[in-house]
Design goal:
The protein has 405 residues and is α/β, with parallel strands linked by helices. Helix content is 36%, strand content 15%. It is built from 13 helices and 13 strands. α5 links the parallel β5 and β6. The two termini are 14 Å apart.
C-alpha cells in the first residue's frame, strides 16, 4: 500500500514528530509510507518537499498578513489561528499522484490551502485526516479554550479584533462546511476527548471519526530507573514551558503549596524542567528544589524520564498528552489535569493522578500521591506499549485504510 502523509514539518513540533513516527512504523509493517512537508529538517529519503521554498514562503506570509489585518494589526493571537487561504502545489508531487491513501496531519501555515484540499478530495483517493488539535472543526482556531462557537457556525471569534457575526472565523467555517459536504474524508482523533469535541461540533457531528492515539516507539524507552533514587524526581517538559496553554503558573503554585504545607515531602522532591522559557526569572518564585535544563535534543529526553519518578503536566488543554505517554513508557507515574486527552493515558489512582482543573492544590495532591506510590515501572512501560506502541498504532491505521472504499 502506498501511503503519503502530509505535515508541515518532519520534526519541528509535536504533530511533526508523531507523524514521522507513524510513517516509520507503517514502513516497518511493510508499507510504502512517505511524508510530504514544507519544512524539512531530516535527510530521510522517505521525506520530500511539497512545492518550492519560494512558494511556501509566499503562502505562509500571505496567510499571516490577512490574519494580521483581521486582527486589527495586533500580533497577540497571530499563531493561534489559521485560515488555509494559501498553500503550495501539493497535488503536483509524483508521490501524491501515485498514492493509494493520503493521510493529512498538521497542514496549516502554508502547506495545504482549502482550495487545494477540495481538489485533493476530488481525486478520489482514500483520504484520512488525523486531527492533532481542534482546527478541523472550528472556524480558524487551533484550540477553542472555553469558547463554544464551534458547536454552531463560529463568528464573533475571540481571537480576532474585528469580530462580528460574519467575521473571518465564520467565513472560513462556511468554506470548510462546503468542502466537507462534497469530500469523503475519514477523520482520526488522537484522543477520546478530541473525538467528543468533534462530535459536538456543527462541522463534524455527522462525520466518520475514529480514535487512534499518536504512535510512540515505546521500545526506545527503557523503564529501569537510573540516577539518585533518594530523591523523587518530577519531570516536566515542553517545547516552550511558559506557553500559556501549558499552565506553568499553576505548576509553580502547586509546587509552592507542597513546599509550604508538606516540608518533609518537599525535602525529597526535585523538579527537573526542560524546554524553552521566555522569562527564566520566573523560576525564582519556585520554592521546591529544581533544575532547568533548557531546550534538550530529542535523544536526551529518554534519559531524563529514566532518571525521573513522576512525569507532570499542568496544561490547561491537551489533545493527546505526548509527554505523559513518553514518561509512562519510561516507567514514570503521570500526573496531570483531567481536561483533555490525559484521560486516555492515566487511569486515576492506578496508573497516575488526574487533578481537577484548574485546581493547583489538587495538582499538588497528585504529585504527593504519586511520590508516595512507588510505581511498578515495568508494568507502566507495558501499559504504554499496549496503548500507544507505534507498531500497534500503525496496524490500526492500516485496518482503517483497508476499510475505506
Amino acid at each position: 500500500m502506498k501511503i503519503v502523509l502530509l505535515c508541515k514539518s518532519d520534526s519541528l513540533g509535536g504533530a511533526a514528530i508523531v507523524t514521522y513516527r507513524l510513517m516509520d512504523a507503517l514502513c516497518r509493517e511493510g508499507h510504502d509510507a512517505r511524508m510530504l512537508v514544507v519544512d524539512r529538517r531530516t535527510d530521510d529519503p522517505r521525506v520530500d518537499l511539497a512545492g518550492t521554498p519560494e512558494h511556501y514562503r509566499w503562502a505562509f506570509y500571505s496567510e499571516r498578513i490577512k490574519i494580521f489585518a483581521a486582527n486589527g494589526l495586533n500580533r497577540r493571537d497571530l499563531f493561534k489561528v489559521s485560515t488555509a487561504s494559501h498553500g503550495v502545489d501539493v497535488l503536483a508531487h509524483p508521490w501524491l499522484k501515485s498514492a493509494d491513501v493520503v493521510c493529512l496531519n498538521w497542514i496549516n501555515q502554508g502547506l495545504l490551502s482549502l482550495g487545494e484540499l477540495r481538489r485533493l478530495a476530488a481525486m478520489g483517493k482514500k483520504l484520512v485526516w488525523t486531527m492533532h488539535d481542534m482546527w478541523c472543526f472550528t472556524g480558524i482556531c487551533h484550540h477553542a479554550y472555553d469558547c463554544r462557537g464551534y458547536t454552531g457556525s463560529c463568528g464573533r471569534c475571540p481571537f480576532v479584533r474585528l469580530r462580528h457575526r460574519n467575521d473571518l472565523s465564520h467565513r472560513i467555517w462556511q468554506r470548510k462546511r462546503d468542502i466537507y459536504a462534497e469530500a469523503r474524508i475519514h477523520f482520526v482523533a488522537v484522543s477520546s476527548w478530541l473525538a467528543e469535541r468533534a462530535r459536538e461540533s456543527l462541522l463534524l457531528h455527522r462525520a466518520d471519526v475514529t480514535v487512534i492515539p499518536n504512535a510512540l516507539p515505546v521500545e526506545q524507552f527503557a523503564w529501569q530507573r537510573i540516577g539518585d533514587e533518594s530523591k523523587t524526581v518530577v519531570a516536566m517538559g515542553a517545547a516552550r514551558l511558559d506557553d500559556p496553554v501549558k499552565g506553568f503558573p499553576l505548576m509553580i503554585e502547586a509546587a509552592n503549596i507542597i513546599a509550604d504545607n508538606a516540608p518533609d515531602a518537599a525535602a525529597r522532591i526535585e523538579l527537573v524542567l526542560f524546554g524553552n522559557l521566555r522569562n527564566p526569572e520566573v523560576l525564582n518564585t519556585l520554592r521546591l528544589p529544581h533544575r532547568w535544563l533548557g531546550p534538550v535534543a530529542p535523544d536526551r529526553i529518554h534519559s531524563i524520564y529514566q532518571g525521573a519518578d513522576i512525569v507532570l503536566s499542568s496544561s490547561h488543554f491537551e489533545t493527546s498528552g505526548a509527554t505523559l505517554a513518553e514518561g509512562l513508557a519510561a516507567g514514570c507515574m503521570p500526573v496531570a489535569f483531567d481536561h483533555g486527552g490525559q484521560g486516555d493515558i492515566i487511569d486515576h489512582l492506578r496508573t497516575g493522578y488526574l487533578a481537577k482543573h484548574p485546581d493547583a492544590a489538587d495538582l499538588a495532591d497528585g504529585i504527593l500521591w504519586a511520590a508516595s506510590h512507588r510505581a511498578d515501572r515495568e508494568s507502566l512501560h507495558a501499559i504504554a506499549d499496549e496503548r500507544f506502541g507505534d507498531r500497534q498504532v500503525a496496524r490500526r491505521y492500516v485496518e482503517l485504510f483497508n476499510s475505506l472504499k
